[in-house]
Write a structure and sequence with these properties.
With 187 residues, the chain is of the alpha+beta class. Helix content is 29%, strand content 28%. It has a single domain, classed as Nucleoside Triphosphate Pyrophosphohydrolase. It contains 5 helices and 9 strands; from the N terminus they run H-E-E-E-H-E-E-E-E-H-H-E-E-H. A 6-stranded mixed β-sheet has the order 3-1-5-4-8-9, with helices on both faces. The protein has a 3-stranded antiparallel β-sheet with strand order 2-7-6. The protein is elongated, with a radius of gyration of 25 Å. The N and C termini lie far apart (69 Å). The model has no long low-confidence stretch (mean pLDDT 84).
């Protein structure tokens, strides 16, 4: 029988989840948001299933939303979400969904499963919940800078210039031992 503390520990490990999504844009600057039923607006995203990597999950979700041949590009943002009491930590990947040449402003999914709109970035951030809006801002920054933006709870992690560590000697210079060597030679 496991100690009570261990069951809490192991329970917290298995509560961690991974999500993946895509930032899909139009030539006119719109960003795709989805809403299932009367739920909140969200980016095309979902849980990474067992045996699936984040890129494949983002591709699957984008294909279910738009087109069976749809693909995703590079990672724009990675967000580590710290869970609170009763919630596990999670990690979210946002991929570049590319730019569509369309003038469609809104559509519904097959069978009316979801509602979709292409909206300006500023309007998207207002319609998304706090963390998802920050993730979108981080992904757009990553797109603009041509890099991947690291986030923790939707807040960008400050990065410093990467430089190699200073060269270190394994042994001190011989000059430091000269006095010791001279002392030995005299005795």
């Amino acid at each position: 029988m496991a100690a009570p503390g261990l069951s809490g520990y192991y329970g917290s490990i298995f509560k961690r989840s991974t999500t993946a999504g895509a930032v899909i844009r139009t030539v006119g600057g719109g960003i795709l948001l989805l809403r299932y039923g009367t739920g909140p607006w969200q980016l095309p995203a979902g849980v990474v299933k067992a045996g699936e990597d984040p890129r494949t999950a983002a591709r699957r979700i984008a294909r279910e939303t738009l087109d069976p041949g749809f693909d995703v590009g590079r990672v724009l943002a990675v967000d580590y979400l710290q869970g609170g009491p009763g919630r596990g930590d999670s990690i979210a990947f946002l991929f570049d969904g590319g730019t569509l040449a369309t003038t469609v402003a809104a559509f519904t999914g097959a069978g009316g499963g979801f509602e979709a709109r292409f909206l300006p970035a500023a309007e998207c951030r207002q319609m998304l919940d706090g963390v998802t809006g920050k993730q979108l801002a981080g992904a757009l920054l990553g797109l603009e800078l041509g890099t991947t933006v690291e986030l923790v709870d939707g807040v960008q992690v400050p990065t410093e210039a990467v430089c190699p560590p200073p060269l270190r000697r394994m042994m001190p210079p011989l000059e430091d031992f000269s006095a010791v060597l001279e002392h030995r030679e005299r005795t």
